[in-house]
Amino acid sequence: MANSSRKVKKAELERQAQTEREIIGICFIALALFLAAGIYTDMVGMIGNAAKNLTFGLFGIAGYAAPFILAGLGILSIAMSKSPASSSTLWLIVGGVVCLLVIIHTATRGEITVDKVTAYYSDAYMYGKLYCKGGGLLGALLAYPSMKLLGTAGTYIFFGAAVFIVFLVATKLSIRTLGQKVGSGIRNGVETVSEKVQQVHARDM
């Protein structure tokens, strides 16, 4: 009886958690639609315009892709709502996006020309907001200490590797397995071509 009660309670908690993840997904999609309307149209008034400025200030040129990223996160949240690990996957994707922003920011604003870190962050925000370029404030947050400690080349290497690792973990791909599949495909292709060449030579003789 006690075991049955615990199972029912556990199932109820799992359903509740699933519903919460689905609600989060719907909120992401709604926000994505609102941002898309604010970025690509003039149909959402002052609030939409403020959201547009905030988005480009935070994300820089990636602000154009922000609605699609949010929509993708919302769809993933709903599709993976039954899995307790879905939230960690979503956060992993967010981390990958931030790493991309750091790379973009380093490529466009690679030189640190100000003394105060607050001035650097303010410049990154305004640059993204006004020109819709760079990696925005989010890219600058990690780009500044990284360029100070690792330099420009080190920043590219570190965050490039981080993006690659996030991709592998999120997609659960194995480099070794992928390499074996590619190698097998190439080998089969070469063998097929070789067989056809031999058949052609045999007919000619």
Could you outline the blueprint of secondary structure elements for this entry?
Layout: H1 2-40, H2 45-59, H3 66-79, H4 86-108, H5 117-131, H6 136-171, H7 175-204
Low-confidence segments, given as residue ranges, are none
Strand proportion, as a percent range, falls in under 5%
Helix content: over 70%
N→C terminal distance? 83 Å
Determine the structural class based on helices, strands and strand pairing: mainly alpha
**What is the succession of H and E elements?**
HHHHHHH
Could you state the oligomeric state of the chains shown?
A: single chain
Task: Summarize the main sheet.
Answer: none
Apparent shape? extended
Q: Which features characterize this protein?
A:
205 residues, mainly alpha, 0% strand, extended
What can you tell me about this protein's structure?
With 205 residues, the chain is mainly α. Helices cover 84% and strands 0% of the residues. Helix 1 (2-40) runs antiparallel to helix 3 (66-79), helix 2 (45-59) packs across helix 6 and helix 5 crosses helix 6 (136-171). The longest helix is centred in the first third of the chain and has 39 residues, at 2-40. The mean pLDDT is 86.
